[in-house]
Design goal:
Length: 174
């Protein structure tokens, strides 16, 4: 009976791990996944299911770029934070194509404007920053953003909720 329990828990953990790794497959359409499989196969020169530095070097060589340094290749591989199999490959492209930073990075950026740690930033001050700093927003872009931004009665933006919307989408869009 004890061994039966162990087996059940192991199966549950395995199912959870499988679900966790397969979530990226729901981001893309089946035709897109097939295209990524073809690209992965082209890069995985030795067909072992893992993209290595040698695979990348050979791929670049075939594309006519023969001066790629080992350091550049290693930097590319570091993005996978471990061996790059097809699921990791797909995840990396999902992050790149989605165009958003991980939620934690965005939260950390907002925290710079919230030294008291309240979880909010003033809407008017934030609007001024968006219109005048770095990659300036147009007034229309600011208004579009504020249309889906959680703002309280005091005019403060709940940036934790906004970060969730940025990285996961606004549930009202569906």
């Amino acid at each position: 009976m004890a061994s039966r329990r162990v087996g059940r828990h192991g199966g549950t953990a395995a199912r959870r791990a499988q679900r966790g790794s397969s979530n990226i497959f729901s981001v893309f359409e089946q035709s897109q996944i097939q295209e990524f499989k073809e690209a992965f196969s082209c890069i995985d020169q030795n067909r072992d299911g893992i993209i290595t530095k040698a695979d990348l070097k050979e791929t670049y060589w075939q594309l006519g770029k023969t001066n790629v340094s080992d350091e550049e290749l290693e930097e590319m591989l570091k993005e996978g934070k471990g061996p790059i199999n097809f699921t990791i490959f797909l995840t990396l492209f999902g992050e790149k194509l989605n165009g958003t930073d991980p939620e934690e990075s965005i939260l950390n950026a907002f925290k710079v404007f919230d030294p008291a740690g309240t979880g909010t930033v003033n809407k008017d001050e934030f609007k001024q920053l968006l219109l005048t700093q770095a990659d300036k927003f147009s007034p229309e872009e600011v208004e579009q953003m504020f249309a889906v931004t959680p703002i309280d009665v005091l005019g403060n933006i709940d940036y934790k909720s906004l970060c969730y919307i940025i990285t996961h989408g606004d549930e009202k869009e569906d």
